[in-house]
């Protein structure tokens, strides 16, 4: 029997893991296919017909094809009527989506050069000045998260776990695993320990892969 949901993307991808963790929280079954570096090429005509950006993840279900990891997470929570992960009330929902968008547009952008240099060790990303600038920017963005978590004393968008914690929790994992100097952020440390109590995080979050 085929699963109703198919996920295209390798399990080590941070963006694929957002979707896998969301499925774990929702109790959704799925079939996953390996696509991406080291596996089937996302630049193949077969894949780009599904996502012209040639990036994972892509999902396919009875509603069709969808890409962009944060959008997929929102879609799955909405489809399965989970108002804890994605509140139905407009203001509460907007706060969750605000932090999800921040992760995608601000936090993600900050780590690009430093992560590519220090973890992927790409020879074209080895300028010491650029690495230093990247580390400083990354740490600055994490200071914004530290301030927010110190205020909520729980999760990113407030007292309850939401989709914002899935996408940002994986980003915290990446920050902690990158070999570089980091400030002492006690609220982030406590937050990471809270996430580590969740089965979905243990399975798809802190899995030893950046």
Automatic annotation (TrEMBL):
GO molecular function list: transferase activity
UniProt KW keywords: Transferase
InterPro entries the UniProt entry points to: Glutathione-S-Trfase_C-like, Glutathione-S-Trfase_C_sf, Glutathione_S-Trfase, Glutathione_S-Trfase_N, GST_C, Thioredoxin-like_sf
Domain GST N-terminal: 3-84
Domain GST C-terminal stretches: 89-210
Gene3D superfamilies reported in the protein's UniProt record: 1.20.1050.10, Glutaredoxin (3.40.30.10)
Superkingdom to which the source organism belongs: Bacteria
Family the UniProt entry places it in: Belongs to the GST superfamily.
Name of the protein this chain belongs to: Glutathione S-transferase
Record organism: Pseudomonas frederiksbergensis
